[in-house]
Amino acid sequence: MKPRAAILCLAVLSLFLLSAAGQKKTPKSAKPAPLGPKYQEWLDLTTYIILPQEKEVFSKLQSDFERDIFIETFWKQRDPTPGTPENEYRQEIRKRFDYVNKEFSRDTPRPGWMTDRGRIYMILGEPQGRERISLPELHPAELWSYYGDTSKGLPTYFGLVFFRRQGIGEYTLYSPAGDGPKSLVVYMPNLGFNPDSITDVVVYIREYAPTLAPFTLSIIPQDTSLDLDPTVRSEIQMAQILESPRKNINPSYATHFMNYKGLVSTEYLTNYVECEATVAVVRDPVEGIPFLHFSVAPKSISVDYYGPDNKYFCNYAVDVSLKKGETFVFQSSKDFSYYFPADESEMVAANGVVIQDFFPVIEGKFKLTVLLRNSVGKEFSLLERDVVIDSAPSPRIGAVLVGYKTESFRDDNLMAFKVLDQRIMTDPKNSFTPTDSIALLFQLENPTEELLRSGGIKITVRGARAANPTEKEFTLPLNRPPYQRSVMFSQAIPAADLTPDYYDVTVSLVEGERIIDTESATFVVSPASKLARPIILTKTMPRTSLHLQYLALAGEAEKSGEARLAEGYFDRALRMVPDNPEAAAYYCGFLMRTRQFERALSLIETVKADPALQFDYYIIKGKALRELGRCDEAIPLLEAGNKLYNSDTRLLNALGYCYYKTGQKAQAIEALRASLRLSPDQADVKTLVEEISRQ
C-alpha cells in the first residue's frame, strides 16, 4: 500500500467518516470470567471495607488483568499517605486478615475472618484493652475496648463484649438490647436474686466482673437509662461501627472504572481525581444558537518540571462527547497545557486549575461527558451531566451564571462563559468570602416589544438555614426599546450583606404581578477570610470562524436523524464561507449520505482546485457518478484517486463495481479483492466477487 501524501485534509475526512461511526450502538459486555482463588481471597479480605458499588463493578470485570488494575485502584482510594511508596492501610488490612484467620478459627469450622471477633478485628484492629472473663458464675466472655475515630461517627470510647452463648460454640458479639445481661449469667438454682430483673442481674454481674457490668447495658459505659434498661442506641452505634471503614470513600471511581476502562489507558485508571464542575447553556445573542459551556476543576493537580525553560507544567487532554440515547452526536479532543515559573508552583498546587470550554448544541436531551487526562501523574477526572436544550420561542430567562468577577473584552472572540463583551470568571465551587462581590450574569431571551417596555427582572437571594435566613431582593426594570431578541444583564451582590450560609438565587421575569419565567443558581458565603481561586485554562475562537460551529451543528443534527435540520446548518455555514473548500467537501459528504448525488456533483467542483482535497474530490465525484449509473465517467476519477491513495475500501469498492458494470471483470475482481484484503468482513463485497467469478 502506498503511504498517502499530505494532500488529504484530515479534519474533513474525520468529519466525513464520523457521521457513520456516530450511529453505532454500544456493544453489550461479555460474560465475566469465573473468579480464581486469588481474587476470591481478595473479596474475603475486603468483605468489611468494600462498598456495594465497588463489589458490583468488580464482579462484572472480564479478565484478571482488569481485576488487578481495579484492586490497585481500590487501595489507592484508601491510601492514608498517597505521596509515599507504601500503603499503610493495605498492609494493615492484610496483617489483620492473617491474624484473625490464625487466632479465631480454633473453636469454629469457619475461617476466622467470618467470625464476629474476626469481623470486629478486621474493622477496628487490635483493641486498646482486651479482658477475658472466665468465671463459673458467667459464660466465657471477652471485653474489647476502643478509643473511636469521631470523624467516622464512632464514640470517643466504647467497649464490645463477645461471649459463648450458653457456654458453648464460638464467641458471638453481645447485643445489650438483643441479648440482655441475663444471657451472660450461668443459671443455677438459688441464685439469690430475680433473674428477670435487669437491675438484679447487672448488680450480680458487677459483683463478679465489675469492668464488664457497664457494657452489658450499652457499648458506651455512660450511656445508660435511670432504670438500667439496655439502650437501643447501642444498636445505632454498632451499625455506625460496622460502616466506619466505608466512610469518606467516594464509589464514583468504581463506576468510572467500568465505564472507561476501554477509553482510559490502564496507567490512568488507577489515578482518578474527583472534580467540581459547572455546566450552562448560553445562547449567542448575535446568532441565536445555543452553546454548551462547561467548567471542570480537578480537586488536586500533579505538575512536572521542564528543565530547558526552567518551568513547571501540567498538560490536560480534554475529550468531550455528547450522546443522544446510544448515539454519539458530538465528539472533540483538545489539549490544555499550562507552564509557569518555579516560584508559582506552590500557588498553583494550592489553587489548582479549572478547564473551561464550549461548543454549539442542537435542541434535545443529551448525556454530556467531559474526560480530563493529565499526562503528569497519569491522572484523570470525569464530568457527566444530563442536559436539556430547549429552543422554545417564548420569553424566558437564560442560565444564571455565578462568578467572582466580570471582565470586559473589546474583541469579538467567542470564549467560554463570555456573552458579547462580558466574561464572567467562574469557579465551580461557587464559594465567596464576606469581602467578595458576587457577580451574576444572565440573559433575557425572546422578549416581546411590550415586555421590554413594561416588564422587569426580580432577583431574590435567600439563605438555606431554617431559622431567620438572610433574604435580599433586587428589582431591575427593563424599559429597553428598541426590540432585541436577547438582552444581557449583570448584577453585583456584596457578600458582606449576607451571613455565611448556603444560598439560592432566583431570577424572575415579571410583568406586573405575573411571573413569566424563573431561573435559579446556588452559591455559598463562607466565613473564611480568603479563598483560593483556580487558574482558568480556556481557548478562544474568532467570530470569523463561526462557520465551524454551524458545521458542528450540522453534524449533530445528522447523527440525531434530523437531515433537514442538518441541511439548513450546512447551507448557513456555506453561505458564511462560500469559497471555503473544506466546508464544501464536508457538505458534499452529507449530500452523498442523503443520496443527493446531483447536488454533490455540482458542489464538489468548488473543491477541485485545492491540492489538499484532491483525493476527496476524486472519491466524492466518482462515487456520485457511480450512484447515477455513469460508470464510464466515474472510472477515470476513481483510478486517479487510487493512485493518490490505494487503501480506501470505499473507493476500491466503487471502482470494482464500475469495472464490473462496464464489462471489465478481471479489473473488477482485482479491485474488490484489494478491498477485502484491507477489510475481510465485507459480506456484500464477497458476494459480488463470487457472482463475477461465476460469470
Provide an overview of this structure:
It is a single chain. By secondary structure, this protein is of the alpha+beta class. Among the domains are: 128-245, no CATH class; 273-391, Immunoglobulin-like (Sandwich), CATH 2.60.40.10; 393-537, Immunoglobulin-like (Sandwich); 546-646, Serine Threonine Protein Phosphatase 5, Tetratricopeptide repeat (Alpha Horseshoe), CATH 1.25.40. It is built from 21 helices and 27 strands. Strands 7, 8, 9, 11 and 12 form a five-stranded antiparallel sheet that branches. Strand 21 and strand 22 form a beta hairpin. Helix 5 packs antiparallel against helix 6. It is globular. Mean pLDDT is 90; it is low at 1-29.
Report the sheet with the most strands, covering strand number, pairing sense and barrel closure: 5 strands, antiparallel
Shape: globular
**Cα-atom Rg, whole angstroms?**
35 Å
CATH architecture of the domain at 393-537: Sandwich
Number of helices: 21
The count of β-strands is: 27
Q: How much is the average pLDDT?
A: 90
What is the CATH C level class of the domain at 393-537, in words? Mainly Beta
The multimeric state of the shown protein is: single chain
Low-confidence stretches: 1-29
β-strand amount: 25-35%
- What structural class results from the helix and strand content? alpha+beta
Percent of residues in helical segments? 25-40%
* The CATH topology of the domain at 393-537: Immunoglobulin-like
Determine the N-to-C terminus distance. Answer: 29 Å
